[in-house]
Specification:
The chain is mainly alpha-helical. α1 packs across α5 and α2 packs across α3. It is built from 5 helices and no strands.
């Protein structure tokens, strides 16, 4: 039995997920912060930040709010992107990516 086909929607979701995850790293680096410095500023453990930036973990709403507030990002837009990340992770678990 072959692998399930990846739909165009799933591919777009994966691209958005990577952009979402990388977005936080970009904003952190713009400030010249290490993960530990960002953890101190946001109150989010550096290990969690690392996993979020790699797309391994979705932030909880409170964490997302802290990150958006610290990096001065629009919370509503990031919440919408979080949905894309969730879809990507589900596709990955299903073996589609």
């Amino acid at each position: 039995m072959g692998s399930p086909r990846v739909t165009a929607h799933e591919k777009r979701a994966a691209i958005r997920a990577l952009a979402f995850a990388d977005g936080f790293a970009v904003h952190r680096r713009k400030r010249g912060w290490s993960l530990r410095m960002a953890a101190k500023e946001t109150g989010v453990p550096h290990v969690s930040l690392h996993d979020i930036e790699l797309g391994r973990r979705l932030p909880h709403v409170e964490t997302l709010y802290r990150l958006c507030h610290t990096y001065r990002l629009p919370f509503a837009e990031m919440v919408a992107e979080c949905g894309a990340v969730r879809a990507c992770n589900e596709a990955r678990r299903a073996g589609l990516l």
